[in-house]
Amino acid sequence: MLRTHTCGELNVSNTGKSVTLCGWVHRRRDHGGLIFIDLRDRYGFTQVVIDPNHGTAFAAAEKVRSEWVLKITGTVRARLEGAAREDNPTGGIEVLVDELNVLNEAKTPPFEIDQEKDVGEEIRLEYRFLDLRRERMKNNIIRRHDIMKQIRRYFHDNDFVEVETPILIKGTPEGSREYLVPSRLYHGKFYVLPQSPQQLKQLLMVSGMDKYFQIARCFRDEDQRGDRQPEFTQFEIEMSFCDQDDVMNVMEGCFIEVTKAVRPDRALQAEPFPRITYREAMEKYGSDKPDLRFDMPLTNVTDIVKGCGFKVFADVASSGGMVSAMRAPRASVFSRKDIDELTDLAQRHGAGGLAYIIVKENELQSPIVKFLGEDVAKSIVEKVGAKTGDTVFFAAGQYPHALEPLGEVRKECAKRLKLIDESIWSYVWVVDFPMFEKSKETGEVGAVHHPFTRPHPDDETLVESDPLAARAIAYDLVLNGNEVGGGSMRIHEHDLQKRVFNVLGISDDDAQRRFGHMLRAFEYGAPPHGGIAMGLDRFCMILADEPNIREVIAFPKDQKAKDLMLGAPSAMPNQQIEELGIQIIEE
Predict the structure, then answer these.
(1) SS3 content of the chain, % helix, strand, coil (to 5)
(2) What are phi and psi of 25, to 5 degrees?
């Protein structure tokens, strides 16, 4: 090794020892006779001192600038009294340099690395190799490493077999657009990059592997947003001869251990994690990924508004819809601008508007009170428990879509009113999801999760007769209002799978074309099985208190799916294009 120690290793116990350090110049300070350099590597910072008595080293140090790569040899000494830095593990010592070698010079970086200043994301991604030198980003990547290490240890200790599944697979459209990989050997035919190893891990259960685990790379060619990337990572399990509780208990144990190990500074809100049904989550919180760090439940007031004078509510109630109200404590402090912004938020999520009642000391203030009638308005206020200074917001429409805008308003109110307890990790399981849903665009019935999800045993008779009422044995894990993953028990019987395919409009020929390998495998003795997949990037993002997953991925794409550092996607030489049997049509 070129060095005897790292830059985060030395302390007063090393005083008097001759050491060699290597690293980058984090900061350089010339105090007119002494030159101080904070030398940085992955492990930390060490202050090194060069005085004029070491002429060669001092002459070299005078030329040194930020981010140059140095090798220094010198003697460890304690800092002067009052000069120690308790915020730095090496802050009690410094190294008096005898020899300084410049291993590499550096151009002036396009942004400051020694300070956490706001830098445009475009320039950060273009120079990601420099961005990763910054303390925050370095810590994010190391924390991700620690999370993965803990996850692997947990599943290895619990007798799961780690199996790598292929990246080049057959296209079996399951909802998201797939990335295609043309075959050079078989012109006109393609591999796809897997959206997930879903079918492969089920086939591993058919193979008798019993308990499978993988940290898997997945790919989806879809529009980007804060918590999505074209390529992402998930950790997942599949288990044979199990039920829903077995899968959830194993994964819950993993999250408890990892969270406590990686972020012990915050407490878990509850152990074991609470469980609520999808319907309860929607009706009480307006979301299938509720944030339980604050209360503010929704209350069904449909019965109260039936036949009232406010036509919007009365029509919804008479047509079998739902009217819900939410008490926002102390929200009377909201300005007209706040109300307008909350209304805009509700409309962006599908609401026609946002009705409200402000509870004053001697009156109920709202444009809708005169239509509701004073008695109806007071009954609503009483039912939701609103007091003077509170504001009541409303949602009206068909379940569950009418509740989603109010769920978004609930979250935004909690932020503005500072009701969120940032000191805890709030996990909750959401169970009993719908089996099917109707597309808003086409009206066609599709699977909420995927076509291999098992219907709830109490609802198997509804699969054909009333598919939208059928529940699935499906479950999601939510952390602080973010879905971190989900899973289900799988269909392992040929006949039941065929019934589900029929509801989804998948013909026998289409099923054979898309899933023939699965159906064939199930004819050879498939065990009952189930599993779950968790988004590693999103989990790391939450544990790092970052706003999007790009902050916890070493080399992410930007929000337009471009790699600004490498310049991908890029044009390819004509020879390679021709070898693949592809013709490019210029726009």
Answers:
(1) 35, 25, 40
(2) -80, 110
Among the listed residues 237, 304, 141, 164, the one whose alpha carbon sits nearest the alpha carbon of residue 531: 237
Domains in the chain (CATH in brackets) are 12-104 (2.40.50.140), 294-420 (3.30.1360.30)
Only one residue has tokens 């009642």, namely 357
Does the pLDDT of residue 500 top 80, yes or no?
Answer: yes
> Is the separation of the CB atoms in 416 and 410 below 8 Å?
no
Cβ distance 433 to 483 under 8 Å?
no
Q: What is the pLDDT of residue 151?
A: 98
pLDDT at 208: 97
The dihedral over CA atoms of 14, 20, 24, 30, expressed in degrees to the nearest 10, equals 70
Q: What is the pLDDT of residues 195-233, one digit of tens each?
A: 999 999 999 999 999 999 999 999 999 876 657 899 999
Whole-model pTM over 0.90: yes
Is beta strand 298-300 parallel, antiparallel or unpaired with respect to 424-425?
unpaired
* Neighbouring C-beta atoms of residue 160, cutoff 10 Å: 20
Is 313 in a helix, a strand, or coil?
A: helix
How many Cβ atoms from other residues are within 10 Å of residue 246's Cβ?
A: 13
Rounded Cα gap, residues 413 and 393, in angstroms: 10
Which amino acid, 249? N
